Structure formats: structure tokens, C-alpha cells
Amino acid sequence: MSGVVDAKLAELGLTLPEVVPPLATYQPAVRSGAYVYTAGQLPMVKGNLPVTGKVGAEVSAEQAKELAATCALNALAAVKSVVGDLDKIARVVKVVGFIASAPDFTGQPGVLNGASELLGAVLGDKGVHARSAVGVAVLPLDAPVEIEIQVELVAGA
Fold first, then answer.
1. What's the Rg (C-alpha) of the chain?
2. pLDDT tens string 57-78
3. Where are the strands (E) in the chain, listed by range?
């Protein structure tokens, strides 16, 4: 661990995981100019989904919020795999969250708060972002949550 962000992760008791291998033909993250875009990140922990199902049915909103934080941590790992150092992040620009929802579940924004809160805790003001929380019928591997992020890098990074 070398940077400010790595130190903050350690202070929070968090460990950046290995990048989740792609489930199909895509890259976990790509850089275009001063931006890094991640693919949708599932809440994988050591290669497995800890929970499956729909939020509001098999998965509680609180569980899903925790899973969204795991997705955000996986997204940071994907960003780091491209730029090498999370201190190169100028800011998180956008977060998009997909929440596999039971038909009557309407708490998608609260679930996505798990990702937003983690990014704020780790990156401070650089973690403040625009976002969209979208309810969907089903996600890959029956995951309850999937998150993608877009970050802007500091000039010259």
C-alpha cells in the first residue's frame, strides 16, 4: 500500500479484491482519455456470489445495500487494474446501479446508497457523483445488484 486511497481503505478495514474475471467477452475496465469506465461489477467475493435472488423477495434491501458496496469495491479494483494507482482518480463522475427487483420493490435508490457511501468513505469529496438506480427483472448469475462507475483521472495521469 502506498497511496492516500490505499491508506484510507486500510483505515476502513477494507481490502481491494482481485479484479473479477469477465463472465463474457469484455474488459473489466477501459480507459479513454482522462476517463476510466468499468463494466458492470457483480458483488463477487473470492469468485462467488454470497447471495442470489431478487431484492424485496429473497434478498432484503439491507443485504442488497451491503452487496452494492461490494460491487463498488470491485469497481475500484477494476479501475486500479487500468491506472495502477487509485490516487490518480480526480473524481467519480457517474455510478449506475442495476437492482434485480421483486415486482413491488421500489427502494432501488436506498440499495445504491451502499455503493455511493463506500465511494464517499474511500475517496472523500472525489467520491461524490451523479447516479442512476435502475430496477431490472434479472441480472447475470441471478445477482441481486450490479454496479458500473465512470471516473475522471487527474491531469497527466
1. 15
2. 999 999 999 999 999 999 999 9
3. 29-32, 35-38, 89-100, 130-136, 145-153
